[in-house]
Amino acid sequence: MKKMIALAMAMTMGLSLVACGSSDTAASTDAAAETTEAADTADTAEETEVPSAGGSYTIGICQLVQHEALDAATQGFKDAIVEALGEDAVTFDEQNAQGDSNTCATIINGFVAEDADLILANATAALQAAQAGTSEIPILGTSVTEYGVALGIDDFDGTVGGNISGTSDLAPLTEQAAMLNELFPDAKNVGLLYCTAEANSQYQVDEVQKALEGMGYTCKQYGFSDSNDLSSVTTTAADESDVIYVPTDNTVANNTEIVNNICQPAGVPIIAGEEGICKGCGVATLSISYYDLGVATGKMAVKILTGEADISEMPIEYAPQFTKEYNPTLCEALGVTVPDDYTAIAE
């Protein structure tokens, strides 16, 4: 009897252990399933991650100087990013160098120190400072005429590579020369006014001079080092020229009143490289929309930040269209008549 009772108790204990083992296994299986599901959910969330409220991205904006064209490019850039990512998804650290290239370097170093996610370099000097300041943070340039010249790249093929890309404000220079010829076919001497500290200004006047000399004009370059000698150099140019050409030069753009106060009384018209300069001191221009250029740059930034594009493989983008524009006030004052296909610049 005792043996039978012992056997029965042993069987009961065995069944209990089996039941406990089954319960533990089931619990382990459920836990593993939950862990796997959580991991899958995390992976999915990582793949589709969008910027969270409060600002997931910090973008440093270094603008060389404040004037109409560069301001418009910066605004277009910001608007495009906010439209794509949302206002709470990005923080803009916007700083202006007030025309000083050394200040550009200081600003860029600050962006590097704060580990910005992307840098917008608005104008050539800002781009050059950014190139020198970091090889890691993505850099987008805008309002830069020719990247090969600005960055010292020989045989530039349209893609900078590394951590730099952007947009160009280069208008067809031969067509700008053709505009001068269209409006002033009887002129003889053309002055080319530009800041020698701006590499892309030098590039533009060199190219326009070639085109104009091919049309029979006599050209002379009038370079000034900064705004301090702008007045004296402009006075000389106005005395010796029938018409003056000014490229997309930031120093002139920031000082159009000085140029206009000399050239208008002297009766010397100016063909300008962009709308802002034309509005301040020119009679006509073949220009782009700098706001639209900024928007294009902003769209590039979104692709970089979201991982949709690799900046090292992104070619420089150019303005899609150009418009013949004229300044009604100065044209009337100087007796300049423009063809019907020119658009008046709004005052």
Automatic annotation (TrEMBL):
InterPro entries: ABC_transpt-TYRBP-like (IPR007487), Peripla_BP_I (IPR028082)
Listed Low complexity bias regions: 31-42
PANTHER family, alphabetized: ABC TRANSPORTER, SUBSTRATE-BINDING LIPOPROTEIN (PTHR35271:SF1), ABC TRANSPORTER, SUBSTRATE-BINDING LIPOPROTEIN-RELATED (PTHR35271)
Keyword Signal recorded: yes
Pfam family, one: ABC_sub_bind
Protein name per its UniProtKB record: ABC transporter substrate-binding protein
Signal peptide range: 1-21
Organism: Hominiventricola filiformis
Ribonucleoprotein keyword on record: no
Keywords: Signal
Region (Disordered): 31-51
